[in-house]
Amino acid sequence: MAKEKPSINTVNFSAAQLMEFDACTRCGECVKYCPTYDARDKNQDIEPRDKIQRWKEFMNKSYGLKARFLGPEKIAPEVIKKYTDDLYNCTTCGMCGTVCPAGINTIELWESNRANLVKYGTGPYGKQRLFPKLIEEGHNPYMKQQKDRLAWMTPDIKIADKSDIAYFIGCTAGYNQQVLGVSTARILNKLNVPFMALGEDEWCCGSALIRTGQQHINDTPKKSSIHNVEALKARGAKRVIFACAGCFRAAKIDWPRAYGKELPFEAIHMSQFLAEQLDAGKIKWEKSLDKTVTYHDPCHLGRHVGVFEEPRKVINSMPGIKLVEMKRNRKEQRCCGAGGGVKAGIPDLALGVAKGRMNDAKETGAQALISTCPFCRRNLLDGRDDLKMDMSVDDLVVLTANLMGLSTDVKPPAPGAPKESISDLFRTQIIPPKPPAEPKKEEPKKEEPKKQEPKAAVPPAGKK
Amino acid sequence: MTGLNIFGKEVFDTLFIDWQIMAAVAIISVILFLVGMYIQLDKWGRGIPEGATKPIGAWGALKLIVGGIFVKGIGHAFEVLVLDVLFQRRTYRRRKVEWLMHILIFWGWIGLLILTIVAAAAEFAGPFLFNQDYTYFVGVWQFLKLPNNIFGLMLVAGILIAIGRRLLSKSKDVQARNADVDWILIIGLLIVVATGFYSQYLRADVFQTPRDIISAYPAGFFDNFTVMFHEVFTLLFCVAYLPFSKYFHMIAAPLTILVNHGGE
């Protein structure tokens, strides 16, 4: 009699990663810090430890000692589906790996596990399924036009055609968070740093696909990465500035893998660039702001890449600003809740985690929360609004631009534009309310219409 | 019954259990350990990372792991081995009580292992290097009594902390699902330690001549059941059973730390 096939498979895992499942000592250190476990009311199914133990059990049932001699033990499809859903209840923030006494590289482990389950057919989760088509066809997850990549530009901003310094804007800043684009560009202009941008030639960094385990679908992130690298190289870039932590993480870690070798340019985050300029004495503060602020380390800039001190250096140099730290900071910060596809796929979880982080900020007594990632900012704004908390949430670059005496105004916002498109700290602009939708003309009745639930106006892929 | 005769010299004539039983159990334990390790390596070697077309198998997994350890150079691998594996730096940073427990059990165990190897070496060194009879070994063994006691007590202290932690801190954050399985390990170690101390008591304290040649043992003492149980159980529980047990992390975790260069 032929032996039954294992219920799971081992694709997308390296041998070292399969070893990592056996390395977990079940100590539970990861559980103490997991932001999604907290946001899900300490549901044990969401624990990193429990997920590792469950997959280890699946592996042993499929390929362990007993399976070798008696054949694999069947795992019910609903058990694997449940595991998949629990696996996606994770922002891949990496906190579990940071604290793991066994040194398990959980970020890579979750991503491989997700890719495995996407191939298996139970992943990804909810709207994350739209990412491959959107990014493959439109080169961004927001269903926007490539020609609008630089639509945020105002007449005062100068972008060179060619320069050895490039600004990689990213989809979130380019389309939804114009205040970050204009602030970055104006700072570079003021510092007399000629820079170019790819504009229509800029494609999504691929982060959303990689984090959700969908990198293999049409090889889209690989194609995007190679496209971006080649385009930047062709335009003569030697240094590429990123103001988005997610894009920066992708460029530092994911792009070289896709490109197959070292990038032909240096990738640098805007906060690092600002710290450099500060050291060189090039930044002159023209204004002062008497505020106490706290700094949120984005996972993709901090834990994933290791940039912790530069943003703090810039904040500490600002006149009038007092920086207070949250209890959980630097390597041990709590995730904002948006990453790992959670914002698009499981918005209620993203909101729950964001509220946790905003409460961390509130404990410090700060008047504003500053971050260095547009995606974090958007989610933290949602958390703040849900809690009805009186605290500004803005980007370090926006704060820098203002204190350098620069305007942070964007083009007059369209009615109903995303709240994150303008500065939250310097409310010099308002977003006109969206006009009420015109009532639909009633068509002549042909048959009794089916009763439908009103659809929530939630845009795909985290677009708001 | 005598010891093992090698080239006319007698070794293991100071063991007070049959060396043939010990040799057989030791060989079986090592074989079972290696079979278990092979099955685990083969399981790991089934991984097919993105871009690969087929699994690398047990041998490939072993090569990948060993190669991975030295990617950042021998110096870095040595540093991680000492600080993160032998002294468990990652655990120390966050879990002081657990670190103390681990260190006491780990170093207690390693200490006893080293002293056992030293004693075994003395069995051979006496007749082969110094042309002496069993009395050479007896001298070494007496010299090792104090460090043996220290390492044994470290092990006991570690086990007591482990029991205390499990009995006193039952918060959900600490307890894993099916955490009760940990008791198997704790009770197993307790059996090893208790029978070990009893065996030592039999040899050292009841018979004032600390350890003697087999023929000098009183009737009924040779192949004493408790001593035999101690030796056989220790080999089977701590060597043969390890790769098949829930405590396989004792091997996989240090390897993971080494492959991940000390972790994040």
Uncertain spans of chain B, ≥5 residues at pLDDT below 50? Answer: none
Proportion of beta-strand residues of chain B: under 5%
Coarse morphology of chain B: globular
Question: Rg of chain B from C-alpha positions?
Answer: 21 Å
Using DSSP, what is the number of strands of chain B? 2
Tally of distinct domains of chain B: 1
Please describe the biggest sheet of chain A, giving its number of strands, its sense, and whether it closes into a barrel.
Answer: 4 strands, parallel
Distance between the termini of chain B: 57 Å
Quickly describe the structure.
Chain A has 464 residues and is of the alpha/beta class. Chain A has helices at residues 15-23, 29-33, 35-39, 48-63, 65-70, 77-88, 95-99, 106-120, 131-138, 171-176, 178-190, 207-211, 220-234, 245-259, 270-279, 309-316, 342-345, 347-364, 374-387, 396-403; strands spanning 165-168, 239-242, 266-269, 291-295, 321-324, 368-371, 392-395.
Give a written overview of the molecule.
The complex is a heterodimer of chains A (464) and B (264). Chain A is of the alpha/beta class and 464 residues long. Chain A has helices spanning 15-23, 29-33, 35-39, 48-63, 65-70, 77-88, 95-99, 106-120, 131-138, 171-176, 178-190, 207-211, 220-234, 245-259, 270-279, 309-316, 342-345, 347-364, 374-387, 396-403; strands spanning 165-168, 239-242, 266-269, 291-295, 321-324, 368-371, 392-395. Chain A has a four-stranded parallel β-sheet with strand order 5-4-6-7, sandwiched between helices. A three-stranded parallel β-sheet of chain A has the order 1-2-3. Chain A has 20 helices and seven strands. In chain A, strand 4, helix 16 (309-316) and strand 5 form a beta-alpha-beta unit. Chain A is globular and about 75 Å long. Chain A has three domains: 15-123, Orthogonal Bundle (Fumarate Reductase Iron-sulfur Protein, Chain B, domain 2), CATH 1.10.1060; 128-278, Rossmann fold (3-Layer(aba) Sandwich), CATH 3.40.50; 284-421, 3-Layer(aba) Sandwich (Rossmann fold), CATH 3.40.50. Chain B is mainly α and 264 residues long. Chain B has one domain. Chain B has helices at 19-44, 57-69, 74-86, 89-94, 96-129, 134-143, 145-168, 182-206, 225-240, 249-259, and strands spanning 4-6, 9-11. Chain B has a two-stranded antiparallel sheet with strand order 1-2. In chain B, helix 1 (19-44) packs across helix 2, helix 1 (19-44) packs parallel to helix 9 and helix 7 runs antiparallel to helix 8. Chain B is globular, with a radius of gyration of 21 Å. The mean pLDDT of chain B is 85. The interface between A and B is large, with 47 and 47 residues.
